[in-house]
Amino acid sequence: MTNVHEDVQNYYGQQLQQSSDLKTDACCSKAQVPSFIKDILKKIHPEVVAKYYGCGLVFPPKLEGCRVLDLGSGSGRDVYILSSLVGAKGYSVGVDMTKEQLDVANRFVDYHTKEFGFEKANVEFRLGKIEQLTDDPELKTNSFDVVVSNCVVNLSPDKKKVLQQVYEML
Q1: What is the total count of domains within the chain?
Q2: Is 52 part of any domain?
Q3: Cα separation of 15 and 152, whole Å?
Q4: Phi, psi at 121, each rounded to 5°
Q5: Of 83, 25, 15, 89, whose CA–CA distance to 55 is shortest?
Q6: pLDDT tens digits, residue range 83-130?
Q7: pLDDT for 46-82, tens place per residue?
Q8: Buried b vs exposed e over 112-141: b needs ≥16 C-beta within 10 Å?
Q9: Is the Cβ–Cβ distance between 12 and 101 less than 8 Å?
Q10: Residues paired with residue 70 on neighbouring β-strands, in sequence order
Q11: 142 domain residue, yes or no
């Protein structure tokens, strides 16, 4: 593991306890959140929201039925919003290298499945590095329609490798 990976894991897994602990809001936009996203956000569990460390919005239109991969999913806020947007026939996968964040995300899978009115979960969370997606046998190449990331690719020590991995997933 590189020092960058260790630093990121320590900061997001140990130092930060809630969104207000972030040391910067430089990348955060003051843009208006669309009402349909606000409605979904109201359904996201408060602990997931409190441990959300991204910024802005990563939700492209027309996701119904899509398979979406979120790089650096953290506590799962964006994955759960995507879960609602892709609907019961779609699927959302979050990948993060920080176990503490994934523990939060995984704790609320059943909660969000019920909150969105789905019969079964349409999300999963995977522990891993975004530079090594193809090393995970559960992440199949050419199996995603959309890949999103919210303030994470910039933290990678090998951005070219991340983008190569994204290409493999699409």
Answers
A1: 1
A2: no
A3: 17
A4: -65, 140
A5: 25
A6: 999 999 999 999 999 999 999 999 999 999 999 999 999 999 999 999
A7: 999 998 877 778 898 899 999 999 999 999 999 999 9
A8: bbebbebeeebbebbebbbbebeeeeebee
A9: yes
A10: 94, 148
A11: yes
pTM: predicted TM-score of the whole model, two decimal places: 0.84
* DSSP-based three-state secondary structure for 126: strand
Q: Given this model, what pLDDT does residue 128 score?
A: 97
Q: State what percent of residues in the chain have pLDDT above 70.
A: 83
Token pair, residue 161, equals 């490798």
Q: Which two tokens stand for residue 148?
A: 């999103």
| pLDDT score, position 56 | 77
Phi, psi of 125 (to 5 degrees): -125, 135
**Helices (DSSP H) in the chain: which residue ranges?**
3-10, 35-41, 46-50, 77-86, 99-107, 109-115, 159-169
Instruction: Count Cβ atoms within 10 A of the Cβ of residue 59 and give its class: 0-12 exposed, 13-18 middle, 19 or more buried.
Output: buried
CATH number at residue 65: 3.40.50.150
In a domain, 53, yes or no: no
First-to-last C-alpha distance (Å) of the chain:
26
The radius of gyration computed from the CA coordinates of the chain, to the nearest angstrom, equals: 15
State which residues form the domain around 97: 3-13+61-169
25 domain-assigned:
no
Q: Return the SS3 of 124.
A: strand
